[in-house]
Design a protein that fits this description.
Blueprint: H1 3-7, E1 15-23, E2 26-31, E3 37-39, E4 42-46, E5 50-51, E6 65-70, H2 74-80, E7 89-96, E8 103-116, E9 119-126, E10 161-170, E11 173-176, E12 191-194, E13 197-205, E14 208-211, E15 223-227, H3 234-240
Parallel strand pairs: 2-4
Antiparallel strand pairs: 1-2, 1-7, 3-4, 5-6, 6-9, 7-8, 8-9, 10-11, 10-15, 11-14, 12-13, 12-15, 13-14
């Protein structure tokens, strides 16, 4: 019996769903079934996972989905401290008990999370929404508009990389001995990266670094990669990165408003 036959049957339908979450090379595989399910050489483990209903509409923005998972799942830990670095995609497969035919029921990405008691709700949007979303156009501003190390910036990330290891960590405060080899503030606006992800550095004095949010899996002795920060001024762009040709700001915008009504005599 095919999936469509069971899906449209008044009595024979008994759906099971597979939830495949992916971020880079990391995967989290769960199923609503009562036993593990093997599909495409991957094993999906049972979890108390549920989702909201899907709405069929002509507007892509109305096709969002909420997935609710226990907060003690490894996937939930990714969202507890702060939004994860990079895109977390979700693929929902569906079949009926007694049938081997799976279909790709829904595909999208996680855009937000909400923690309530023992449950975490993940807000997801269809992957197609990115096709109709207008991008942010260039702004006329004093500071550089480019994201550090992106294609517009052009600075090579690994040319400004410093390897080290964690000497101590308390919440968002991390000590890395190698950081003392650079002037205070050198890593502000840069990144501390590990195998589990990365965080922006918001303060740097000697060996002490303060992250924008804690990295829950970070422990003493872990290797880290530190990347230089930028304040998006011509000073850092030229003197730190030698990258003034790619500066994305307009440093010579007049700072005095000609319409402020000040007297000219």
């Amino acid at each position: 019996m095919t999936y469509l036959t069971r899906e449209t049957s008044p009595y024979d339908g008994q759906p099971e769903e597979l939830y495949r979450f992916v971020q880079g090379t990391s995967r989290w595989l769960y199923t609503s079934a009562q036993a593990p399910v093997d599909y495409l050489s991957e094993t999906y483990r049972p979890a108390a996972i549920e989702r909201g209903s899907l709405e069929q509409a002509t507007e892509l923005s109305r096709g969002s989905l909420e997935v609710r998972i226990p907060r003690d799942l490894p996937l939930a830990q990714l969202f507890i401290a702060a939004p994860p670095e990079g895109v977390v995609s979700i693929t929902l497969y569906r079949r009926h008990v007694g049938d081997s035919e799976f279909i790709t029921y829904w595909k999208g990405r996680v855009t937000g999370s909400r923690l309530s008691g023992s449950t975490m709700a993940l807000q997801c949007e269809p992957i197609a929404t990115s096709l109709k979303r207008p991008g942010l156009r260039a702004r006329y501003q004093l500071l550089c508009r480019h994201v550090l190390y992106d294609s517009g910036c052009g600075a090579l990330r690994d040319s400004f990389r410093l390897d080290g290891s964690v000497s101590a960590v308390t919440g968002a405060s991390v000590q890395v001995a190698a950081a003392a080899g650079k002037p205070d503030g050198y890593f502000v606006g840069g990144i501390l990266a590990t195998a589990q992800g990365g965080r922006m550095i918001v303060a740097h004095v000697g060996i002490d670094l303060t992250l924008a949010a804690p990295l829950p899996a970070l422990t003493t002795g872990d290797p880290v990669r530190l990347y230089a920060g930028c304040d998006h001024t011509t000073n850092h762009c030229n003197n730190r990165f030698n990258n003034l040709d790619n500066f994305g700001g307009f440093p010579f915008i007049p700072v005095k408003n000609p319409f402020s009504g000040d007297a000219i005599v």
